[in-house]
Amino acid sequence: MRTFLAYFQNLRFKQKLFISYMVVSIIPVVVLGMFSYHQASSFLLQQAKQNLDGAISQIAETINYRAKQHEAIINSITQNVVFKRIFISNDGDFPVLYRDYVDPFFSNILDFNQDILQISVFTENQSILRGEYILPLDLTSDLKWANQRTHSKETQWNIKNGKLFATRPFVSEEGVPLGKAPAVLFLSIDADSLFQSLDDIKTNAYGILILDKEGNQILTKNMKMSVELPISSLPSSQLRERIGSFSMQGADYMYITADMAEPGWKLVYFTPKSGISVDARSIVSATALIVLVCLAGLLLIIWIFSNTFVKRIIKLNKKMMIVENGNLKIDVSSQSRDEIGQLTNRFGNMLVNINTLIEEVYQSKITQKEAELKALQTQINPHFLYNTLSIINWKALEIDAMEISQITNTVSRFYRTVLNKGRDFIPVRNELENAKDYMHIQSIMHNYRFDFICEVDEALLRYDMINLIFQPILENALEHGIDKLRKGDGRGCITLRGYRSGEDLEFCIADNGPGMSKELAEEVIQVSSIGYGLKNVHDRIQIRFGQSYGLRIESELGHGTSVFLNFPAYTAEGYSREDA
């Protein structure tokens, strides 16, 4: 939890605002969607149960109607006076009655009722046995109904080996068998035909149980059930409700009952509760679509709100980043009167004050540096110096000392460039010539123990730069680089390269001396280190052109030192107009 809070705390304000809106909006939408899904699922499930109940009731009515038809056939035989004379009273001329009445009657029943597979009368009267229609009662000794010599007029329904049959004894009007030879009517019925309507049930997995009046099982049927349930062992007390449920073998089942009045049966339909689950794909799709539409609308509103609230903060933050990168000349203001507008205007006022102070300090430093430079320059009388060097050159020529004459001319050119008639700016071409003269003098003083290479793009020569920039850097390269090479380390070399970098000019002065540590390289620019004087050059460039310009040192112990300096590509005349 703490990790999440720390992560949330470090997020951007827009992200926090967006997440907060999303959480507050999504929770009620999702809860409402789940509630709607639950209500719709419950409604459809209840509707499915009602539809299933109606289907079961209709099937029960169909079976009841067919059973009633068979019951009518049984009544037409057992209540027939002629059949009673034959099978109960043993009265009349049996061969004639059989030929003219029994055989045609039974044949017609079989012809017009395809679902009746067999119709017979089982009797103990051996004298009237005929074909398949009148059979000895002894053949039924192994059947359950044969031992149930009831005086009831009701039909008994039984099932054995998957075959359904109905039996009814021939009795008198008072319910007492007549004569000494009882007879029983037997109808074998095609169970598939009688119960074919059960196949109209459309659920995936279900079971059917048909019970008689005593609760005895007449028919069981399992359709795609994963396990065969001992449903017959279920107490009938658990099946009293119209629609109910029971548990068996660790699973929950729902059942629906329907009574069939004519045969006195009860139809029991049961299925796993998971089997009647509603196909919720349409509900899920509709719910998901509604939720997605709501979320899309909310996302749009949240995006508009968050952008409205955060846009000005982002804009203010960008301006602060620009200021942080050194550009203090931007305008920061707002017309809004809320807290963000007040913060923006206060920052703008603070920036104006800072610019004013910076201008004052920079102008003060520029004035101070110019005064120091002018004081240095005025210490030397230019005419006296030039005249003196001219006399030395003339005397050297008189005695044919050409090397002394060359050195004198070089020194004269060097100081003429350094003094630059008191101006701060100098053409790049003249500053390079000054650097060459200085290095020539130093080469003579060092007995030509090092090489100086100058590689500057010709396109740079038309621009101007601050006077006396290269000389202090070259002096450091000699003093702290070339002069510290040990014997055997090779010949010293100093390289000055210049090239254009975008809108700026960039120069690099590199030596192959012993180099310096990274800490010292940073210190010599930031601190006025004795013996280096690079900070003065760095400050002069930044005071004149801004914080994004100045010196940069790259050095590694044992691999020499490179000093990079950059400033804008300008001409002194154009730059002065821009300053104004």
From TrEMBL:
Gene3D superfamilies: 6.10.340.10, Histidine kinase-like ATPase, C-terminal domain. Keywords: ATP-binding, Cell membrane, Kinase, Membrane, Nucleotide-binding, Phosphoprotein, Transferase, Transmembrane, Transmembrane helix, Two-component regulatory system. Its EC number is 2.7.13.3. SMART domains: HAMP, HATPase_c. Residues 470-571 form the Histidine kinase domain. The chain crosses the membrane at residues 18-37, 283-310. Residues 307-359 form the HAMP domain. CDD domains: HAMP. This is histidine kinase. It catalyses: ATP + protein L-histidine = ADP + protein N-phospho-L-histidine. SUPFAM superfamilies: ATPase domain of HSP90 chaperone/DNA topoisomerase II/histidine kinase, HAMP domain-like. It is found in: Cell membrane. PANTHER family: SENSOR HISTIDINE KINASE YPDA. InterPro entries: Bact_2-comp_sensor_kinase, HAMP_dom, HATPase_C_sf, HATPase_dom, His_kinase_dom, Sig_transdc_His_kin_internal. It is a multi-pass membrane protein.
